[in-house]
Specification:
- About 30% of the residues lie in helices and about 15% in strands.
- The protein contains 14 helices and 21 strands.
- The strands form six sheets. The chain has a five-stranded parallel β-sheet, covered by helices on one side. Strands 8-17-9-10-13 form a five-stranded parallel β-sheet, covered by helices on one side. The chain has a four-stranded mixed β-sheet with strand order 6-5-4-18, with no helix packed on it.
- α1 runs parallel beside α12 and α12 packs parallel to α14.
- Bound molecules: NADP nicotinamide-adenine-dinucleotide phosphate (NAP).
- NADP nicotinamide-adenine-dinucleotide phosphate binds next to α4.
């Protein structure tokens, strides 16, 4: 062990995952001069959720120039809301440009990570072993598919897969396709399949509010101007109207009684009233809970897609799945060639099923038995030198997780700098800081629009929203600098 005050550039840093936040970590660690860093990635490519999701119609519903690393603007975004493949390409290009590929060990799944004798000991499925002084968990939120427990699911004789496991060898044109689920994924799928499939049936359990949005392309002239003028590109990336909307929206979310929420409600209600001609269909599409309670769906074309002559909204409730299709509670059998389960993700898993064990044998599975949580979404008591990006209770409003991860990185960087400088050997948030934070978070979460009476992936097992419950401004403030008295700093 080196002396307490010697600068330790060679500290071993392990990053879990090479998605958006893992690539960010690699870039920032290299920039800061950490020379002994590895990123373990269980798949063969970078990209995380953008690698896993390739379904037709996949679109980023955050404006492209905002869904971009602050330090790596992209003049070439094709659309305001770009296709998923373009986002994946952006991450691959960025990883190459910053030579992050060289840091990544692909096809290595970490199965155990245990803190023993002052270091993290990691075991991979392949049998590889590593040790680290610092671990950054950048494992993402939405990557464990949630499969429905519908009777007869295993009896279906057609083709069936989860939306994040798309099989591109399966033909779509002229087929009878059923989509279960109408979150952002199901809605985007219907927009892509209506008019292409012989018939597409959308099985809706709960109606969704739809926020209208225009998806304008960037012209070749605009892209050329962005390429030529860095300041112009920077101003687009930091568009004041968008940033003001982020601020307004997160403030609105934090207070279900706010006038901003009432404004959102008026817009989505007007969208429904104006866009759906048939009164029977309109009533089926009318949610019975408040707008933005579930994650708002931004779609330029869902209402027109579901009114396509070859599309049908099915709301009768699924009785069971049979060999040839879905039987609804009204007794009807909906014959299908392809069944897509757009049924979302288990949002409470994070780095699990990995077995993570902290100081004194404390198991992550036990700490998170009730609900996954973390101090300011980044640190867990008894898990020293272990930090998370986009960890539990991390999402801020509906907006760019890249911005959230960058700000979290700014916070974590200050802690790991203490480790590198030798000022501390072990940094772990104290239980009392965690408890105080969690108490305040739970109280605030109950006032958010997410807790106003609907079911969504934002809610934990006890129905409490698991996202940042305060304003965007408060998040920025919290991430600006760690309060060191919240941490046990072992010298
Ligand atoms: P989701 O929002 O969790 O939606 C899951 C859907 O499946 C819901 O409509 C749910 O119905 C339905 N469902 C689940 N089990 C069911 C069952 N047994 N029977 C019938 N219906 C069932 O999942 P998602 O659409 O994949 O989206 C998840 C998140 O991914 C989004 O909120 C967003 O954060 C992210 N995403 C982002 C983009 C983007 O453009 N940035 C695109 C896609 C996804 P209930 O509502 O009744 O529970």
């Amino acid at each position: 062990m080196t002396g307490k005050t010697a600068k330790r550039d060679d500290l071993r840093v392990v990053v879990m995952g090479a998605g958006m936040a893992g690539i960010l970590s690699g870039i920032k660690l290299r920039e800061a001069g950490f020379s002994n860093t590895v990123i373990y990635e269980k798949a063969a490519r970078v990209g995380g959720t953008w690698r896993e999701n390739t379904y037709p119609g996949l679109t980023c519903d955050v404006p492209s120039h905002a869904y971009t690393y602050s330090f790596e603007p992209n003049p070439d975004w094709s659309y305001m809301l770009p296709p998923g493949a373009e986002v994946q390409d952006y991450f691959e290009r960025t990883a190459k440009k910053y030579k992050i590929d060289e840091m990544i060990r692909f096809n290595e799944e970490i199965i155990r990570c245990e803190f023993k004798n002052g270091r993290w000991h990691l075991d991979m499925k392949s049998g590889l072993h590593d040790e680290a002084d610092i671990v950054i968990a950048a494992t993402g939120v939405l990557h464990h598919p949630s499969l429905p427990t519908i009777p007869g699911l295993d009896k279906f004789q057609g083709t069936m897969f989860h939306s994040s496991r798309w099989d591109h060898s399966v033909p779509l044109d002229g087929r009878r396709i059923g989509v279960i689920g109408n979150g952002s994924t199901g809605v985007q799928l219907i927009c892509a399949l209506a008019g292409r499939a012989a018939k597409v049936q959308h099985f809706q359990r709960t109606a969704q509010w739809i926020m209208p949005v225009e998806n304008t392309p960037f012209t070749e002239e605009q892209k050329a101007a962005f390429r030529a003028d860095r300041a112009l590109l920077h101003s687009v990336q930091n568009d004041a109207t968008y940033l003001a909307n982020v601020e307004r929206f997160t403030n609105a979310v934090a207070d279900a009684t706010s006038p901003e929420i009432a404004q959102i409600e008026a817009i989505v209600l007007d969208n429904l009233e104006q866009s759906v001609a048939d009164p029977v269909l309109r009533e089926k599409l009318r949610p019975n809970y408040r707008a933005a309670c579930k994650r708002l769906i931004f779609s330029p074309s869902y209402y027109s897609a579901i009114q396509h002559p070859d599309a049908e909204l099915v709301t009768d409730g699924i009785e069971c799945i049979e060999a040839t299709g879905i039987r609804t509670r009204d007794g009807r059998l909906h014959a299908l060639d392809l069944l897509v389960l757009a049924t979302g993700f288990k949002a409470d898993q994070f780095m699990r099923p990995m077995n993570v064990v902290g100081r004194n044998g404390v198991k992550l599975n036990d700490v998170w038995a009730k609900r996954p949580n973390a101090y300011l979404a980044v640190a867990i008591p008894e898990f020293p030198n272990f930090f998370m990006l986009n960890g539990p209770t991390g999402p801020v409003g509906n907006f760019s997780l890249i911005d959230v991860a960058e700000q979290q990185w700014g916070y974590i960087a200050q802690l790991i700098e203490r480790l590198r400088s030798g000022a501390s050997q072990e940094i772990a948030v104290t239980q009392s800081a965690m408890d105080t934070y969690e108490q305040a978070r739970l109280a605030a979460a109950k006032n958010t629009i997410f807790a106003s009476g609907c079911n969504s992936w934002y809610l934990d097992a006890e129905g409490v929203p698991a996202s940042w419950p305060w304003s965007y401004g408060r998040f920025k403030e919290a991430m600006a600098a760690p309060q060191l008295d919240a941490f046990g700093l072992k010298a």
